[in-house]
Amino acid sequence: MSAPGASAAEQWPLWEVFVRAKRGLSHVHVGSLHAPDAALAVRNARDLYTRRNEGVSIWVAPADAITTSDPDAKGAFFESPAGKNYRHASYYTASEGVPHL
């Protein structure tokens, strides 16, 4: 049990909120909130982040379930190894006459 006088934010888990503004677009991280469970997190996210009918879909995920890369290791993590630029689509050019590219 939590300490007496502890706020709900200290007792409830932190949820990360992602909203899709329109069909066909990706979900975008819009913020975080505290809630006791996933269902209430979705309801609170709707009230907090989509007040003017901006969204068509909301995802919530427990913050402790999200793993991120280290921003300081950006170079080693995202850059192509020397001499292996062919691994990226930007290395190739689109051929003339190939539709829908």
Topology overview:
Blueprint: H1 8-11, E1 14-20, E2 28-34, H2 38-49, E3 57-62, H3 74-78
Antiparallel strand pairs: 1-2, 1-3
Enzyme class: oxidoreductase
EC number: 1.14.13.149
Pfam family, one: PaaB
Q: What does this 3D model show about the protein?
A:
- It comes from Microbacterium lushaniae.
- One of its GO terms (molecular function) is phenylacetyl-CoA 1,2-epoxidase activity.
- It is an enzyme of class 1 (oxidoreductase).
- Its EC number is 1.14.13.149.
- With 101 residues, the chain is of the alpha+beta class.
- The chain has a domain at 8-67: Phenylacetic acid degradation B (Ubiquitin-like (UB roll), Roll).
- 21% of the residues lie in helices and 20% in strands.
- The protein is built from three helices and three strands.
- The protein has a three-stranded antiparallel sheet.
- The protein is flat, with a radius of gyration of 21 Å.
- The model has no long low-confidence stretch (mean pLDDT 85).
Characteristic key phrases:
3 helices, PaaB_sf, 1,2-phenylacetyl-CoA epoxidase subunit B, 20% strand, PaaB, alpha+beta, three-stranded antiparallel β-sheet, Ubiquitin-like (UB roll), 101 residues
CATH architecture of the domain at 8-67: Roll
> Which H/E pattern describes the elements?
HEEHEH
Shape summary: flat
Going by CATH, the homologous superfamily of the domain at 8-67 would be: Phenylacetic acid degradation B
In the CATH scheme, what's the topology name of the domain at 8-67? Ubiquitin-like (UB roll)
- Indicate the CATH class of the domain at 8-67: Alpha Beta
Largest sheet: 3 strands, antiparallel
Number of strands: 3
Q: Give the strand order, joined by hyphens, for the main sheet.
A: 2-1-3
Helix content: 10-25%
